[in-house]
Each structure stands twice: as C-alpha cells, then as structure tokens.
C-alpha cells in the first residue's frame, strides 16, 4: 500500500468557518481531484487562528494540541469512484484555561458519494440531509465514565475519573472538564491602572502576562479575570510514569481491571506533548489528577468543596462524537448520571 499526504489549499489561501453558523449545515470549503481507487484515511486541518465572541468581545483562542493542526480520522474508508464527499463534523469544546480560552478539538469524519445539487461548489451551504445524519450517527463512538473519587487537602486537589470505550470504534480521549463548587485561596488580583498602548484593543500583554480591560476602565491580569469567569476547568491525559497506580478511597469505586494514567491542568504553557489518549473498543482507564489548580502567575489556587450533597459536572471530551457529560453528587459514595453537555459551555 502506497500512502501519501496531499495538501489542499482553499481558494484565496484559507477558509474561515463560523462554527455556530454551521449547526446542521454543511459548507464546501475545498475540492481536489484524486484517481479512482484512492482511499482517504484522514483529513488534517492547518489552523491559522481561532477566535470566540463572548457578549460582543472577541478574544483569541489557542488550540489544545501540539502545533497548529488537528486531524479528523475517517470512520469509513471506501474506495473512491466518481465524485465523493468527505463529510467532516466539527464539534469542539472551548474552555477557559487559567490563562485564556482554549479549544479542545473533537470531530467525526465519513465519506459518501456526492449527491450533486451544488455540493462541489466552494462556499456552497445546505442543510444536512437525513442520509448525512445517518452516516455521521453510525460513525460516532461511545464512552461511559464515572467520577471515582474527589478530595482536597490544603491547596491540593485530587480526583480520579474512569473512562471506558463502550463502542465499536477507537476514540481519542482529548480532555476531562469539570465545573462545580470551588473556592479560591490566596493570591492577589487587585485592579491595576496600567493603560493600553492602543485604545482600540481590549487586551494587551506585558511580558508574557496578558491583561484585560474591566468595565470600570481599569486593567486587570487576564488570569485574574479568568479566575472569576472560568466555566470549565480542563485537564488533559499525559503519559503516566512507570510507577503510576490507580488510587481508591472509601468513596470511590473499585476499578482494578482498568489501566491507569495521569491528568495535567490544561493551559497555554502546557508542555507535556499533549496529543490525546487512544482507547480501543472495550478498553478503560482511570485518570488521576493530584496537584494545585492555579491561575497563571496570580497566586490564586482553587479547591473543591467536598461536603456530602455537593454536585460536580464532569465532561469527557473525545473524538468521533463520543463526548459526554456527567452530573455527580458527593456522598458516602459518588453517584453520577449522564447528562447532555450544555451548549453554552461548548
């Protein structure tokens, strides 16, 4: 088998996608001629920039992977004949990391015969057909998850999440998100009187520390602002050390049959070689985080409330449309139920 990489450049050198405007909508962004008999295994996007509009304020977003690319692996790989369409569903999650917005990519990719009707025209948009929905649904992966334990000691937070691939296709686990009852400790985030060098901007940078403009006109370290405005704390799986073992407590569920791994707090300065964690059908893993949850260089550390009855929302972010949400209530044992990931937190 002779595989090769083919570079396809959209007209004008790039294509801009407004993801909120593509809900149940397909947009043609590029085309390429391939010989009959070819097979497409994956499509990789080269990302030049990402931005998010929050209440009219546009802010930059970093990509939560190494480099500036992410790959969509095709769920079906039929031999190409005639005119074909690569249908790529992009369903990323944007989270407030300690030092800025970060996009965690997730996607589903299928190939099908072209239905004509303008599909080959660059920029053409149309509603997804019933067949499109069936193709994408059949390609999606499936996961189950559980919050095994959650504790706090001083400024150190420790928790373990178990994730199991319950589907028939491999998925790449991208991140674990969490929201709930956290309290801040220490730090100093008083507003400053520093002025921007450009009156047209809402953020600027001093050294490596971004600042943001407050409603009163003062400026504040962006990481301080994020400490008050984060919506999902995100943690990424990293390669575990050889000595890593699964931790259990009196309020956790036994998981001796699963592998073990570690989680690291996601930030723009994360340098752990993040590329996700692949789970084959039937595989499960217990992912543990133990450390301080801090925001940039502010000195602020947040810790969870661990009293019985406190609820936390856990979000498992994965490729192939396998992402899911949990609502978990603390107690003698932790009780979790599946819930839909709220759209406003995506």
What would you call the shape?
A: globular
Order of helices and strands: EEEEEEEEEEHEEEEEEEHEEEEEEEEE
Radius of gyration: 22 Å
How many domains? 2
How many E strands?
26
State the low-pLDDT regions, or none. Answer: 190-212, 214-219, 241-256
Q: Strand content of the residues, in percent?
A: 35-45%
Overall SS class = mainly beta
The biggest beta sheet reads: 10 strands, mixed
Average pLDDT: 76
Instruction: Quickly count the helices.
Output: 2
Question: What is the topological layout?
Answer:
Elements: E1 25-27, E2 42-46, E3 51-54, E4 57-63, E5 69-73, E6 84-90, E7 93-97, E8 100-104, E9 107-113, E10 125-127, H1 130-139, E11 143-153, E12 156-165, E13 171-179, E14 182-185, E15 203-206, E16 209-213, E17 219-221, H2 222-229, E18 233-238, E19 259-265, E20 277-279, E21 284-291, E22 293-294, E23 301-304, E24 311-318, E25 324-329, E26 335-339
Parallel strand pairs: 4-8, 19-21
Antiparallel strand pairs: 1-10, 2-5, 3-4, 6-9, 7-8, 11-12, 12-21, 13-18, 13-20, 13-24, 14-23, 15-16, 16-17, 18-19, 22-23, 24-25, 25-26
């Amino acid at each position: 088998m002779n595989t090769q990489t083919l570079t396809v450049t959209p007209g004008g050198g790039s294509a801009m996608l407004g993801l909120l405007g593509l809900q149940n909508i397909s947009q043609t962004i590029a085309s390429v001629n391939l010989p009959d008999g070819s097979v497409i295994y994956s499509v990789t996007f080269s990302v030049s920039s990402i931005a998010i509009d929050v209440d009219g304020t546009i802010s930059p977003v970093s990509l939560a992977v190494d480099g500036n690319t992410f790959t969509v692996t095709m769920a079906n790989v039929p031999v190409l004949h005639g005119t074909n369409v690569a249908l790529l569903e992009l369903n990323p999650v944007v989270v407030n990391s300690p030092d800025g917005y970060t996009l965690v990519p997730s996607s589903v990719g299928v190939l099908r015969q072209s239905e004509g009707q303008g599909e080959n025209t660059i920029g053409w948009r149309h509603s997804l057909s019933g067949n499109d929905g069936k193709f994408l649904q059949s390609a999606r992966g499936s996961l189950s998850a559980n919050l095994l334990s959650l504790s706090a000691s001083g400024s150190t937070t420790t928790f373990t999440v178990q994730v199991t691939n319950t589907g028939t296709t491999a998925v790449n686990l991208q991140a674990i998100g969490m929201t709930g009852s956290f309290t801040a400790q220490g730090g100093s985030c008083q507003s400053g009187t520093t002025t921007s060098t450009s009156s047209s901007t809402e953020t600027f940078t001093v050294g490596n520390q971004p600042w943001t403009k407050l409603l009163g006109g003062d400026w504040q370290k962006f990481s301080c602002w994020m400490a008050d405005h984060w919506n999902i704390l995100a943690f990424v799986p990293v390669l575990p050390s050889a000595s890593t073992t699964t931790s259990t407590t009196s309020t956790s569920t036994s998981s001796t049959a699963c592998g073990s791994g570690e989680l690291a707090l996601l930030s723009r300065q994360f340098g752990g070689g993040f590329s996700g964690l692949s789970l084959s059908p039937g595989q499960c893993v217990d992912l543990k985080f133990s450390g301080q949850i801090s925001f940039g260089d502010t000195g602020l550390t947040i810790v969870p409330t661990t009293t019985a009855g406190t609820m936390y929302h856990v979000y498992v972010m994965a490729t192939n449309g396998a992402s899911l949400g949990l609502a978990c209530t603390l107690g003698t044992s932790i009780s979790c139920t599946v819930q839909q990931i709220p759209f406003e937190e995506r």
